[in-house]
Amino acid sequence: MLKTFSIGGIHPQENKLSANSAIQELPIPQIATIPIAQHIGAPAKVIVKKGDEVKVGQVIAQASGFVSANIHSSVSGTVLKVDDVMDATGFRRTSVVIKVEGDEWLEHIDRSEELVTEITLTKEEIIKRVGDAGIVGLGGATFPAHVKLSVPPGKTAEVLIINAVECEPYLTSDHRVMLEKADEIMVGVEILMKALDVKRAIIGIENNKPDAIAHMTQIATKYSGIEVCPLKTQYPQGGEKQLISATINREVPSGALPIEVGAVVQNVGTAFAVYEAVQKNKPLFERVATVTGKSLKNPSNWKFRVGTPVSDIIEAAGGLPEDTAKIVGGGPMMGKALVSVDVPLTKGSSGLLLLAQEETARKATKACIRCGKCVSVCPMGLEPYLLMVLADKKEYERLEKDAVMDCIECGSCSFTCPATRPLLDYIRLGKGKVGQIMRSRK
Amino acid sequence: MNTKVLVAPSPHIHSGDSIQKNMYGVVYAMLPALLLSFFYFGMGALIVTLTAVASCYLFEFLIQKYLLKVEPSINDGSALITGILLAFNMPANLPIWIIIIGALVAIGVGKMTFGGLGNNVFNPALVGRVFLLISFPVQMTSWPKALGFETSYFDAATGATPLAIIKEGLKKGDSLTDLMSQLPSSTDMFLGNMGGSLGEVAGAALVLGLIYMLVKKIITWHIPVSVIATVAIFSGILNLSNPEAYAGPAFHILTGGLLLGAIFMATDYVTSPMSNKGMIIYGIGIGILTVVIRVFGAYPEGVSFAILIMNAFVPLINVSVKPKRFGEKRK
């Protein structure tokens, strides 16, 4: 029997419409809008001004602090303005707007397709390079990668786990990268292993991608210490704690980080970005995203430059379908609904999903029939029905006691509820308030 | 782009599961037992079922519309379940007016006084049943013999249930072996060839319904299995300690409403615990109480009371038994 995580989980319709569509290159936009907050942590500090000429790969905003990330220009041209522009969150935030002229890259970036397997950098140099390249977790959480590679004193990493499960329905970008760039990923994994000083790496792939499992397993034989672990398709296996439970059967304690059980998790796309940064000197300014939806003409996968407007990738896939009711940045379970197609694609954009009314419209909330299905699907072993009531009644002490902060916001409860209750909406409210109370206590 | 788009927090999709789907799923699971009851008890079964279902719908509608003044939710299927379960708990020759009173108590007292579906503490059908059992003990315990369409609704030949035969016999001082020989064989009991109320006679059909609900993921195994296993173990121990005084597990599982209760009534969403651990504790409680009432109590049958008593413990179980948390700090 295939491995999976220990508690709860759901299996939504996979709808991997674009799985067979090879990665194509999205045309460079005429104007790139590059937000300076594309990661978890402090926004970067802008170091260019209106009128400056920039090249592809040039730093335009510097990391401000340890948990932060550099932002590079994804295009060459002139800075039109540094201004507040609406981004995927719906808020207006500082962005560097660049008028594109040509496509001139910094010279030290190696643009050849040639595979470089020899790792010459030391552990410290690798971590510095990953930080300089502005690499963040590409699974969607966008946590700066160099922070995870810097193991805190007193802790030891034993195993590197590569998240290649792509458990969100519809999304296929990781799947395609594995099929097309397996060798580069393996070298990237080796680099990460060197940075962490571990001898073992496990790549977790769900068995709804048999071609990727076969291909990656075969390629992995050329590299020592890297194994591919096929997993039973089960959402939310891409959650860090769930993936660790599935692959090495260890439970990260409540409130702790994976390093507590000797594990570091990185996304497979991140491994590829690390390869490019370390072996090719290429910072993170482009990545692959899936554009998909049942009514979309051509669900497909595209390599895009950060700062390209969302409308460009939709046009490339055949244009916005008539029946579009919701535009989601990311997958249907954890993605964020966008307010407009004018916002830019960023480092965290793993996909763009266009949903029709009947697929996404919420149904009327009914009384809880106490079926317990939310409890049985919760991957953290929580009681969503109870947390919702407690959040509604502002019972913050009990919320904290009933482990509301353990919620990973995967949405399995709301997805499952037969009474279509907005469980996660209320739990999020409760989490926000309890988090505030906990911080004020310190 | 001028079209307006929806902006709402994730998740953006839903499983499509609904209260109706689950409720009608339970109804489908009850169909084999229902059809079999028509086969065993003929017209009487049909009359009892139709009266019970129709009056449950009617009372739910009237109370919601005119007393509570809310939008009636009779389409959710829960009144249908209560109606069928109520009928399952009645003899096939029960007078219509008693059935209507039972439905009124089930829906009115059992469900609506608490605020309707989702808020009731006790299983509505059982509230109705126990009310009738206490108020009309004679009519509620005159069981027509299962003679198929030969069974007349109006002047059926009646007989005692296996549980009653044993209870009365043991009181008179008859030996258990003699009494057992008066009973149908276990196979006959499993197939429903015995006296009893509509839904309790055919174990095989009830088990078929259980399998359907498990496959469709309407319920989990925890409650039915823990109830049945507890009854088997507890009655087995008693039987081993004194085979002449206590009947064995097969008898206890196949008679009375045990399978009906374990499969369809103890598993009622609203009145059973939320977590798997809680469900098992609840199931064990029902099993123990059932055997205690049957063997040591005044009534020959104990499943209804056992479930109602454990219903009352559900809020306590929910508060004190938490599911296993992921990454819980071990003490």
TrEMBL record, chain A:
Record localization: Cell membrane
Origin: domain of life: Bacteria
GO biological process terms, semicolon-separated: electron transport chain
Residues covered by the 4Fe-4S ferredoxin-type domain: 358-381, 397-427
Transmembrane stretches, start-end: none
Record flagged with keyword Cytoplasm: no
Alphabetical keyword list: 4Fe-4S, Cell membrane, Electron transport, Iron, Iron-sulfur, Membrane, Metal-binding, Repeat, Translocase, Transport
Quaternary state and interactors: The complex is composed of six subunits: RnfA, RnfB, RnfC, RnfD, RnfE and RnfG.
Name used for this protein in its record: Ion-translocating oxidoreductase complex subunit C
Gene: rsxC
TrEMBL record, chain B:
GO CC annotations, alphabetized: plasma membrane
Transmembrane segments: 38-59, 94-114, 121-140, 190-214, 221-240, 246-267, 279-297, 303-321
GO BP, sorted A to Z: electron transport chain; transmembrane transport
Pfam families, per database record: NQR2_RnfD_RnfE
Cofactor(s) named in the record: FMN
Modification sites for FMN phosphoryl threonine: T161
Localization in the cell: Cell membrane
Keywords: Cell membrane, Electron transport, Flavoprotein, FMN, Membrane, Phosphoprotein, Translocase, Transmembrane, Transmembrane helix, Transport
Membrane topology per record: Multi-pass membrane protein
Similarity comment text for this entry: Belongs to the NqrB/RnfD family.
Function according to Swiss-Prot or TrEMBL: Part of a membrane-bound complex that couples electron transfer with translocation of ions across the membrane.
PANTHER family xrefs: ELECTRON TRANSPORT COMPLEX PROTEIN RNFD, ION-TRANSLOCATING OXIDOREDUCTASE COMPLEX SUBUNIT D
Protein name: Ion-translocating oxidoreductase complex subunit D
Species per Swiss-Prot/TrEMBL record: Ancylomarina salipaludis
Gene (name only): rnfD
